[in-house]
Amino acid sequence: MGLAVSGRVAAQDCQDDFIKPGGPFVPETATINYNAFTSNEELYETLEKLDSRSGLEYESIGETWQGRDIPYVRAGDGDPDVFYITQQHGDEQHVTEAALRLLQGLASGGRRSDEILDELTLHVVPRLNPDGWAPADDNETPTRANARPEDVCHDGPYFGSDQCGPVDPNRQHYFGIDSATLADADGIDPDVIPDENPSPETQALLDKADEVGADIITDWHHQFTYRNEDCEMINASTLWPLNEAAPDEAVALSRQISAYAYQQTKGYGHTTWDRYPGGTTANIARNAHGVRGRGSVLFEFRGQASQLGNASNGRLVTVINNVMTEVLEGLASGDLYDVDPADADSLPPRGDYFWKELPRSEWGPEHEAYRE
Ligand SMILES: [Zn+2]
Protein backbone atom coordinates (compact mmCIF):
# COMPACT_ATOMS: atom_id res chain seq x y z
CA MET A 1 0.00 0.00 0.00
CA GLY A 2 3.05 2.24 0.36
CA LEU A 3 1.75 3.55 3.68
CA ALA A 4 4.38 3.91 6.35
CA VAL A 5 2.79 3.12 9.69
CA SER A 6 4.81 3.53 12.83
CA GLY A 7 3.62 2.20 16.13
CA ARG A 8 0.12 1.07 17.01
CA VAL A 9 -2.84 2.62 15.29
CA ALA A 10 -6.34 2.73 16.71
CA ALA A 11 -9.02 1.04 14.61
CA GLN A 12 -10.72 4.27 13.78
CA ASP A 13 -7.39 5.51 12.47
CA CYS A 14 -7.01 2.61 10.00
CA GLN A 15 -7.60 4.05 6.56
CA ASP A 16 -10.53 2.47 4.73
CA ASP A 17 -8.46 0.29 2.42
CA PHE A 18 -5.41 -0.28 4.64
CA ILE A 19 -4.66 -3.67 6.14
CA LYS A 20 -1.49 -5.53 7.19
CA PRO A 21 -0.51 -7.52 5.18
CA GLY A 22 -1.99 -5.79 2.17
CA GLY A 23 -3.51 -8.88 0.61
CA PRO A 24 -3.88 -10.88 -1.43
CA PHE A 25 -7.34 -9.86 -2.60
CA VAL A 26 -9.11 -10.98 -5.74
CA PRO A 27 -10.40 -8.18 -7.97
CA GLU A 28 -14.18 -8.42 -8.07
CA THR A 29 -14.02 -8.88 -11.83
CA ALA A 30 -11.60 -11.82 -11.68
CA THR A 31 -12.68 -15.31 -12.61
CA ILE A 32 -12.06 -17.69 -9.73
CA ASN A 33 -10.36 -20.92 -10.74
CA TYR A 34 -11.49 -23.79 -8.54
CA ASN A 35 -9.26 -26.33 -10.30
CA ALA A 36 -6.53 -25.51 -7.79
CA PHE A 37 -8.48 -27.49 -5.20
CA THR A 38 -9.12 -31.21 -4.72
CA SER A 39 -12.17 -32.38 -6.67
CA ASN A 40 -14.62 -34.83 -5.17
CA GLU A 41 -13.24 -37.57 -7.40
CA GLU A 42 -9.66 -36.76 -6.44
CA LEU A 43 -10.63 -36.70 -2.78
CA TYR A 44 -12.05 -40.23 -2.87
CA GLU A 45 -9.02 -41.48 -4.86
CA THR A 46 -6.58 -39.86 -2.44
CA LEU A 47 -8.30 -41.40 0.58
CA GLU A 48 -8.41 -44.84 -1.04
CA LYS A 49 -4.66 -44.64 -1.68
CA LEU A 50 -4.00 -43.57 1.91
CA ASP A 51 -6.06 -46.52 3.11
CA SER A 52 -4.21 -49.07 0.97
CA ARG A 53 -0.71 -47.71 1.65
CA SER A 54 -0.85 -46.87 5.34
CA GLY A 55 -2.58 -47.67 8.60
CA LEU A 56 -5.31 -45.14 7.93
CA GLU A 57 -8.77 -46.58 7.37
CA TYR A 58 -11.07 -44.89 4.87
CA GLU A 59 -14.76 -45.60 4.51
CA SER A 60 -17.98 -43.93 3.45
CA ILE A 61 -20.29 -43.19 6.37
CA GLY A 62 -23.34 -42.43 4.27
CA GLU A 63 -24.71 -40.83 1.15
CA THR A 64 -25.55 -37.24 0.34
CA TRP A 65 -28.84 -36.18 -1.20
CA GLN A 66 -27.21 -36.55 -4.62
CA GLY A 67 -25.80 -39.97 -3.80
CA ARG A 68 -22.18 -39.04 -3.15
CA ASP A 69 -20.18 -40.84 -0.48
CA ILE A 70 -19.55 -38.97 2.77
CA PRO A 71 -15.85 -39.60 3.40
CA TYR A 72 -14.45 -40.60 6.79
CA VAL A 73 -10.91 -41.57 7.83
CA ARG A 74 -9.80 -43.16 11.08
CA ALA A 75 -6.22 -43.16 12.35
CA GLY A 76 -4.58 -44.31 15.58
CA ASP A 77 -5.86 -46.37 18.46
CA GLY A 78 -5.53 -44.30 21.63
CA ASP A 79 -7.90 -42.36 23.84
CA PRO A 80 -9.47 -39.85 23.43
CA ASP A 81 -11.52 -40.09 20.22
CA VAL A 82 -11.04 -36.78 18.40
CA PHE A 83 -13.00 -35.65 15.32
CA TYR A 84 -11.90 -33.12 12.73
CA ILE A 85 -14.82 -32.09 10.48
CA THR A 86 -14.22 -29.96 7.40
CA GLN A 87 -16.39 -28.38 4.74
CA GLN A 88 -19.82 -28.69 6.25
CA HIS A 89 -20.25 -25.67 4.03
CA GLY A 90 -19.41 -26.63 0.46
CA ASP A 91 -17.87 -23.23 -0.28
CA GLU A 92 -15.22 -23.47 2.48
CA GLN A 93 -12.53 -25.60 0.93
CA HIS A 94 -9.06 -24.72 2.26
CA VAL A 95 -9.79 -26.57 5.51
CA THR A 96 -10.20 -29.78 3.53
CA GLU A 97 -6.85 -29.23 1.80
CA ALA A 98 -5.27 -28.74 5.25
CA ALA A 99 -6.92 -31.90 6.58
CA LEU A 100 -5.58 -33.89 3.61
CA ARG A 101 -2.10 -32.56 4.31
CA LEU A 102 -2.50 -33.59 7.95
CA LEU A 103 -3.59 -37.11 6.98
CA GLN A 104 -0.76 -37.49 4.49
CA GLY A 105 1.72 -36.46 7.19
CA LEU A 106 0.30 -38.97 9.65
CA ALA A 107 0.25 -41.69 6.99
CA SER A 108 3.93 -41.21 6.22
CA GLY A 109 4.74 -42.30 9.76
CA GLY A 110 7.73 -41.38 11.89
CA ARG A 111 8.16 -40.52 15.54
CA ARG A 112 5.94 -37.42 15.50
CA SER A 113 3.12 -39.30 13.87
CA ASP A 114 3.48 -42.29 16.22
CA GLU A 115 3.45 -40.02 19.27
CA ILE A 116 0.07 -38.65 18.22
CA LEU A 117 -1.56 -41.87 17.03
CA ASP A 118 -0.48 -43.88 20.09
CA GLU A 119 -2.19 -41.38 22.35
CA LEU A 120 -5.45 -40.68 20.55
CA THR A 121 -7.73 -41.87 17.78
CA LEU A 122 -8.28 -39.31 15.05
CA HIS A 123 -11.51 -39.37 13.05
CA VAL A 124 -11.53 -37.04 10.04
CA VAL A 125 -14.50 -36.17 7.87
CA PRO A 126 -12.76 -34.29 5.07
CA ARG A 127 -15.60 -32.55 3.21
CA LEU A 128 -18.84 -33.42 4.97
CA ASN A 129 -20.82 -31.73 2.18
CA PRO A 130 -19.46 -32.95 -1.18
CA ASP A 131 -22.72 -31.95 -2.93
CA GLY A 132 -22.10 -28.34 -1.92
CA TRP A 133 -18.60 -28.51 -3.39
CA ALA A 134 -19.65 -30.34 -6.59
CA PRO A 135 -20.31 -27.21 -8.74
CA ALA A 136 -16.68 -26.19 -8.21
CA ASP A 137 -15.54 -29.34 -10.02
CA ASP A 138 -17.14 -27.71 -13.10
CA ASN A 139 -15.50 -24.41 -12.11
CA GLU A 140 -18.78 -22.95 -10.91
CA THR A 141 -19.36 -21.38 -7.51
CA PRO A 142 -19.81 -24.03 -4.80
CA THR A 143 -22.70 -23.73 -2.35
CA ARG A 144 -22.81 -23.35 1.40
CA ALA A 145 -25.88 -25.60 1.77
CA ASN A 146 -26.41 -29.24 0.88
CA ALA A 147 -28.52 -30.41 -2.09
CA ARG A 148 -31.88 -31.27 -0.57
CA PRO A 149 -34.20 -31.07 -3.60
CA GLU A 150 -36.55 -28.11 -3.95
CA ASP A 151 -39.57 -30.41 -3.72
CA VAL A 152 -38.43 -32.10 -0.50
CA CYS A 153 -39.63 -30.33 2.63
CA HIS A 154 -39.34 -30.82 6.38
CA ASP A 155 -40.70 -29.11 9.43
CA GLY A 156 -38.04 -27.53 11.60
CA PRO A 157 -38.31 -26.19 15.14
CA TYR A 158 -35.53 -23.66 14.53
CA PHE A 159 -36.64 -22.42 11.10
CA GLY A 160 -40.38 -23.05 10.94
CA SER A 161 -42.53 -25.70 9.33
CA ASP A 162 -42.49 -26.78 5.69
CA GLN A 163 -38.92 -25.80 4.81
CA CYS A 164 -37.91 -26.98 1.31
CA GLY A 165 -34.75 -27.17 -0.80
CA PRO A 166 -31.07 -26.95 0.18
CA VAL A 167 -30.37 -26.78 3.91
CA ASP A 168 -27.35 -25.74 6.00
CA PRO A 169 -25.74 -28.91 7.44
CA ASN A 170 -24.39 -26.86 10.34
CA ARG A 171 -27.90 -26.05 11.53
CA GLN A 172 -29.15 -29.64 11.86
CA HIS A 173 -27.14 -31.04 14.77
CA TYR A 174 -29.93 -31.16 17.36
CA PHE A 175 -31.27 -34.56 16.23
CA GLY A 176 -30.96 -37.07 19.06
CA ILE A 177 -30.75 -34.51 21.86
CA ASP A 178 -33.61 -34.90 24.34
CA SER A 179 -36.49 -32.73 23.11
CA ALA A 180 -37.27 -31.44 26.62
CA THR A 181 -33.67 -30.20 26.88
CA LEU A 182 -34.03 -28.41 23.56
CA ALA A 183 -37.35 -26.89 24.56
CA ASP A 184 -35.91 -25.73 27.85
CA ALA A 185 -32.61 -24.35 26.55
CA ASP A 186 -33.72 -22.97 23.19
CA GLY A 187 -37.45 -22.42 23.63
CA ILE A 188 -38.32 -24.50 20.58
CA ASP A 189 -41.53 -26.45 19.99
CA PRO A 190 -40.48 -30.13 20.26
CA ASP A 191 -43.60 -31.22 18.34
CA VAL A 192 -42.20 -29.93 15.04
CA ILE A 193 -38.96 -31.96 15.15
CA PRO A 194 -39.15 -34.06 11.96
CA ASP A 195 -38.53 -37.79 11.89
CA GLU A 196 -35.82 -37.41 9.26
CA ASN A 197 -32.80 -35.12 9.36
CA PRO A 198 -32.95 -32.80 6.31
CA SER A 199 -29.15 -33.10 6.23
CA PRO A 200 -28.22 -36.78 5.77
CA GLU A 201 -24.63 -35.52 5.82
CA THR A 202 -25.05 -34.21 9.37
CA GLN A 203 -26.90 -37.33 10.53
CA ALA A 204 -24.11 -39.59 9.20
CA LEU A 205 -21.62 -37.66 11.31
CA LEU A 206 -23.84 -37.72 14.41
CA ASP A 207 -24.29 -41.48 14.07
CA LYS A 208 -20.56 -42.12 13.62
CA ALA A 209 -19.68 -39.90 16.57
CA ASP A 210 -22.12 -41.86 18.76
CA GLU A 211 -20.88 -45.20 17.44
CA VAL A 212 -17.23 -44.56 18.33
CA GLY A 213 -17.90 -42.53 21.47
CA ALA A 214 -16.48 -39.18 20.37
CA ASP A 215 -14.83 -37.21 23.16
CA ILE A 216 -13.87 -34.11 21.19
CA ILE A 217 -15.24 -32.69 17.93
CA THR A 218 -13.57 -29.80 16.17
CA ASP A 219 -15.38 -28.14 13.27
CA TRP A 220 -13.34 -26.27 10.64
CA HIS A 221 -14.77 -23.40 8.57
CA HIS A 222 -14.02 -20.26 6.60
CA GLN A 223 -15.17 -16.69 6.98
CA PHE A 224 -14.67 -13.35 5.30
CA THR A 225 -11.77 -11.02 6.05
CA TYR A 226 -11.67 -9.08 9.33
CA ARG A 227 -9.31 -6.38 10.60
CA ASN A 228 -8.28 -5.76 14.20
CA GLU A 229 -7.63 -2.44 15.88
CA ASP A 230 -3.96 -2.60 14.88
CA CYS A 231 -5.14 -2.69 11.22
CA GLU A 232 -3.98 -6.33 11.00
CA MET A 233 -5.71 -8.95 8.89
CA ILE A 234 -7.42 -11.58 11.04
CA ASN A 235 -6.82 -15.09 9.65
CA ALA A 236 -8.17 -17.27 12.46
CA SER A 237 -11.14 -17.29 14.84
CA THR A 238 -12.46 -19.75 17.39
CA LEU A 239 -15.37 -20.33 19.77
CA TRP A 240 -16.67 -22.96 22.21
CA PRO A 241 -20.21 -24.08 23.16
CA LEU A 242 -22.48 -21.32 24.46
CA ASN A 243 -25.71 -23.30 24.96
CA GLU A 244 -26.84 -23.34 28.60
CA ALA A 245 -27.45 -27.12 28.47
CA ALA A 246 -23.76 -27.85 27.76
CA PRO A 247 -22.17 -29.33 30.92
CA ASP A 248 -19.46 -27.25 32.59
CA GLU A 249 -16.76 -29.90 32.04
CA ALA A 250 -17.48 -30.00 28.31
CA VAL A 251 -17.31 -26.22 28.04
CA ALA A 252 -14.09 -26.12 30.07
CA LEU A 253 -12.40 -28.68 27.80
CA SER A 254 -13.61 -26.78 24.74
CA ARG A 255 -12.22 -23.52 26.09
CA GLN A 256 -8.89 -25.27 26.75
CA ILE A 257 -8.73 -26.33 23.10
CA SER A 258 -9.50 -22.82 21.81
CA ALA A 259 -7.04 -21.21 24.22
CA TYR A 260 -4.29 -23.73 23.45
CA ALA A 261 -4.67 -23.26 19.69
CA TYR A 262 -4.43 -19.49 20.16
CA GLN A 263 -1.45 -19.60 22.51
CA GLN A 264 0.52 -22.06 20.39
CA THR A 265 0.07 -20.36 17.03
CA LYS A 266 -0.42 -16.63 17.63
CA GLY A 267 3.32 -16.10 17.12
CA TYR A 268 3.31 -17.83 13.74
CA GLY A 269 3.22 -15.82 10.52
CA HIS A 270 -0.20 -14.80 9.22
CA THR A 271 -1.97 -16.24 12.25
CA THR A 272 -3.83 -13.32 13.83
CA TRP A 273 -6.78 -14.42 15.95
CA ASP A 274 -10.06 -13.11 17.26
CA ARG A 275 -13.03 -14.61 19.08
CA TYR A 276 -15.82 -15.75 16.78
CA PRO A 277 -19.21 -14.15 17.54
CA GLY A 278 -21.37 -17.28 17.37
CA GLY A 279 -24.90 -18.06 18.51
CA THR A 280 -26.20 -20.14 21.40
CA THR A 281 -28.71 -22.60 19.91
CA ALA A 282 -28.22 -26.37 19.98
CA ASN A 283 -28.90 -26.90 16.27
CA ILE A 284 -25.39 -25.53 15.56
CA ALA A 285 -22.65 -28.19 15.61
CA ARG A 286 -20.43 -26.36 18.13
CA ASN A 287 -23.26 -26.12 20.65
CA ALA A 288 -24.84 -29.51 19.92
CA HIS A 289 -21.66 -31.48 20.58
CA GLY A 290 -21.17 -29.49 23.77
CA VAL A 291 -24.71 -30.28 24.94
CA ARG A 292 -23.84 -33.95 24.38
CA GLY A 293 -20.96 -33.49 26.84
CA ARG A 294 -18.13 -33.44 24.34
CA GLY A 295 -15.29 -31.02 23.94
CA SER A 296 -16.45 -28.97 20.95
CA VAL A 297 -14.68 -26.17 19.16
CA LEU A 298 -15.32 -24.06 16.08
CA PHE A 299 -12.35 -22.87 14.04
CA GLU A 300 -12.85 -20.28 11.32
CA PHE A 301 -10.23 -19.03 8.85
CA ARG A 302 -10.10 -16.39 6.18
CA GLY A 303 -10.88 -17.78 2.73
CA GLN A 304 -14.57 -17.82 1.87
CA ALA A 305 -14.64 -19.29 -1.66
CA SER A 306 -16.67 -16.57 -3.31
CA GLN A 307 -14.44 -13.86 -1.90
CA LEU A 308 -10.95 -15.29 -2.10
CA GLY A 309 -11.04 -18.19 -4.58
CA ASN A 310 -7.59 -19.73 -4.85
CA ALA A 311 -5.67 -16.58 -4.00
CA SER A 312 -3.54 -17.17 -0.91
CA ASN A 313 -4.20 -20.91 -1.15
CA GLY A 314 -0.76 -22.09 -0.03
CA ARG A 315 -0.48 -19.65 2.85
CA LEU A 316 -3.95 -20.39 4.19
CA VAL A 317 -3.53 -24.15 4.04
CA THR A 318 -0.28 -23.83 5.96
CA VAL A 319 -1.89 -21.62 8.63
CA ILE A 320 -4.78 -24.08 9.08
CA ASN A 321 -2.53 -27.15 9.03
CA ASN A 322 -0.39 -25.61 11.77
CA VAL A 323 -3.43 -25.14 14.00
CA MET A 324 -4.70 -28.66 13.26
CA THR A 325 -1.29 -30.13 14.10
CA GLU A 326 -0.75 -28.10 17.28
CA VAL A 327 -4.12 -29.12 18.70
CA LEU A 328 -3.43 -32.81 18.00
CA GLU A 329 0.04 -32.61 19.55
CA GLY A 330 -1.34 -30.78 22.58
CA LEU A 331 -3.97 -33.47 23.11
CA ALA A 332 -1.43 -36.27 22.60
CA SER A 333 1.23 -34.80 24.91
CA GLY A 334 -1.33 -33.73 27.50
CA ASP A 335 -0.02 -30.15 27.48
CA LEU A 336 -3.40 -28.89 26.30
CA TYR A 337 -5.06 -30.10 29.49
CA ASP A 338 -2.75 -27.86 31.56
CA VAL A 339 -4.28 -24.72 30.04
CA ASP A 340 -6.59 -22.68 32.27
CA PRO A 341 -10.03 -22.70 30.59
CA ALA A 342 -10.33 -19.02 31.56
CA ASP A 343 -7.45 -18.27 29.17
CA ALA A 344 -9.95 -18.47 26.30
CA ASP A 345 -11.14 -15.05 27.45
CA SER A 346 -7.78 -13.63 26.35
CA LEU A 347 -8.73 -14.14 22.70
CA PRO A 348 -9.09 -10.66 21.21
CA PRO A 349 -12.64 -9.42 20.51
CA ARG A 350 -14.18 -9.63 17.07
CA GLY A 351 -12.50 -7.45 14.48
CA ASP A 352 -14.25 -5.31 11.88
CA TYR A 353 -15.43 -6.73 8.58
CA PHE A 354 -12.97 -5.70 5.89
CA TRP A 355 -13.33 -5.67 2.16
CA LYS A 356 -10.67 -3.73 0.39
CA GLU A 357 -12.86 -2.33 -2.36
CA LEU A 358 -15.62 -1.34 0.03
CA PRO A 359 -15.17 1.65 2.34
CA ARG A 360 -16.59 1.24 5.81
CA SER A 361 -19.36 3.72 5.03
CA GLU A 362 -20.68 1.23 2.45
CA TRP A 363 -20.67 -1.90 4.60
CA GLY A 364 -24.14 -3.40 4.78
CA PRO A 365 -25.80 -5.88 7.12
CA GLU A 366 -24.83 -8.71 4.75
CA HIS A 367 -21.18 -7.99 5.47
CA GLU A 368 -21.64 -8.07 9.21
CA ALA A 369 -23.97 -11.01 9.42
CA TYR A 370 -21.92 -13.90 8.07
CA ARG A 371 -22.26 -16.87 10.37
CA GLU A 372 -20.33 -20.09 11.12
ZN1 LIG B 1 -18.88 -22.50 7.50
* Percent range for β-strand residues: 15-25%
Q: Mind summarizing the main beta sheet?
A: 8 strands, mixed
Tally of separate domains: 1
In which range does the helix fraction lie? 25-40%
Oligomer: single chain
What's the CATH class label? Alpha Beta
**Spatial order of the strands in the main sheet?**
1-2-4-3-7-12-10-11
Protein name: Peptidase M14 carboxypeptidase A
InterPro entries: Peptidase_M14
Pfam families: Peptidase_M14
Organism: Natronococcus jeotgali DSM 18795
What does this structure look like?
One of its GO terms (cellular component) is extracellular space. This is Peptidase M14 carboxypeptidase A. GO terms for molecular function: metallocarboxypeptidase activity; zinc ion binding. Belongs to the peptidase M14 family. With 372 residues, the chain is an alpha/beta fold. Helices cover 31% and strands 17% of the residues. It has 11 helices and 13 strands. An 8-stranded mixed β-sheet has the order 1-2-4-3-7-12-10-11, with helices on both faces. A hairpin with a 5-residue loop joins strand 8 and strand 9 (233-234). The two termini are 31 Å apart. The structure holds zinc ion (ZN). Zinc ion binds at residues 88-89, 92, 221, 372.
Detail the topology: elements first, then pairings.
Elements: H1 40-53, E1 57-63, E2 69-75, E3 81-86, H2 94-107, H3 111-117, E4 121-126, H4 130-133, E5 153-156, E6 160-164, H5 179-186, H6 200-212, E7 216-223, E8 226-227, E9 233-234, E10 236-239, H7 248-265, E11 273-275, H8 285-291, E12 295-302, H9 305-308, H10 313-333, E13 352-353, H11 365-368
Parallel strand pairs: 3-4, 3-7, 7-12, 10-11
Antiparallel strand pairs: 1-2, 2-4, 5-6, 8-9, 8-13, 10-12
Helix pairs in contact: 2-10, 7-10
